[in-house]
Structure formats: C-alpha cells, structure tokens
C-alpha cells in the first residue's frame, strides 16, 4: 500500500520572504506546524519554518525568498500514515480515511461489500463500496455510496477487525 497521503497544494509565492499560499485538503490543519516535514509530488522534502493559518501562508526552510519559493508553486504536499497518526488527534467516531478503505461493510449479518474509496461532498462524506460478488450475481450494482453519517447509516466501525456495521444501506444499494 502506498504510504503517502495527499494533504495540500502550494499556490503562488506571496511577498519577498518565500511565503506560499497553502490550499489544505485535510481535516487536520494542525499538522502544518513549525518543524513538520512534507514530501512534494516531485519528491522534494520540505520542512515547515512557519505557518500562518489566518492568512493561509506557509514558509519552508531553504526557500527564503520569492525566487526559490516560486519553484514550489503548484507542488502537492504529502505526508506519511505514521506522521498523520502522530500529529492528528481523532475525536470519538472519527477515523482516518486510509483506515476505512478496505473495511468490510455489514448490515444485519449480510455482507454488502468492501470500502473502495471515500468521497467528500458539500454536506457529507461518503463511503464508496464495491458490492459483494454474491449481490452482484443478484443483478445489484457493482458499486454504491453510503453516507458517512453515524446513527442514520453507520452504526459501528471496528478498525481492528476492518469491519463497518451499517443500517438503511441495503436499500441504497437496491435503489442505486
């Protein structure tokens, strides 16, 4: 499994001291603290010198002027699963997307499928499920989406066992 997680994209250089616009694509802005290390899509290691959340600006060691910082524009920032688990604290019923992927989905002992991906939509996140072969053989769709909403659809997530227990989801599959 790929150990890198995409967390942000760098925009244009701002000002003369090497600040860059930061577009975060993560639920954990706290990971962009001084000293944090990220890898770009071009395999460049970057160490955070300072991060200003209110202005959405970031600055890295060794990129202290506009000309060197410009070279980083449009770079994508990645971190590792280990760093994410270390620097991002989860609340109750919160899970990392990478932990949810490949979990089996069950509704009342019926295996609906396996989480293939996660999707972010304006109102909710959704689990993309690859339907179990038994159900595909009954002419049900090969994939479907389950809203990631506790109590309405998600009853329990067991990361250790890689199982997610759901309700009202077989109906979604039937109507997909």
TrEMBL record:
Family matches, as SUPFAM superfamilies:
PRC-barrel domain (SSF50346), Translation proteins (SSF50447)
Concerning its family, UniProt says: Belongs to the RimM family.
Q: Where in the cell is it found?
A: Cytoplasm
Q: What does this protein do?
A: An accessory protein needed during the final step in the assembly of 30S ribosomal subunit, possibly for assembly of the head region. Essential for efficient processing of 16S rRNA. May be needed both before and after RbfA during the maturation of 16S rRNA. It has affinity for free ribosomal 30S subunits but not for 70S ribosomes.
Answer yes or no on keyword Chaperone: yes
Q: Which residues form the Ribosome maturation factor RimM PRC barrel domain?
A: 97-166
In alphabetical order, the GO MF annotations are: ribosome binding
Self-association and partners:
Binds ribosomal protein uS19.
Q: Does the keyword Chaperone apply?
A: yes
Q: Which residues form the RimM N-terminal domain?
A: 7-81
- Write the protein's name: Ribosome maturation factor RimM
Per the record, what about its domains? The PRC barrel domain binds ribosomal protein uS19.
